Amino acid sequence: MKKVKLAVMFLCAIGLYATATAQAPVVAPLPEEQRATAGQIAILLDAMRIKEQMASIMDMIPALMQQQMQKQLEAFGGLQLTPEQEEQVTKFLRRRLEQSMNLYPMEEIIADTGTVYQKYISREDADVVIAFYQTPAAQRLIDAQPAVAQEYLPLVMSRLETRLQAFTEETARESQELLKKLQ
Fold this sequence. Notes:
Blueprint: H1 2-23, H2 38-47, H3 50-75, H4 83-101, H5 106-120, H6 123-133, H7 136-182
Helix pairs in contact: 1-7, 2-5, 2-6, 3-4, 3-7
């Protein structure tokens, strides 16, 4: 049953992604000669304070993962662990979390971000966007983003989890009904 739920959740995620991308306007990469230079992209990412934003997000991930792990442990309510076993599980989870945080180093993420931005931002647009991000209003927006994300991400995760659970149960029920009709 757990495999079925995981498969349904995976299909839901694909469906949500497909819906989101289907509604997004299609923008083709720019020709090489029109693309922002690597230097412009570096200035843009610096003006956007991408490194600080990424660090802020990376700092939030362990807390979010801890919340998810706690929910999973609560799901195993019938499993009684001794304090020593709980400590072993906690150490294991902490170690794996630390390892997972180093799978894709921030420097690589930023370099990859720059490479992708460069495909879609022209030299002229890069100058305009850089100028915007250097304004006090844009800097205040950047300053507010960690607080917004800290409030927004748990809300989204909670709502998505609740809705996915209901959707998964409904899909499983309807699948069973369909299988009965087909037999």
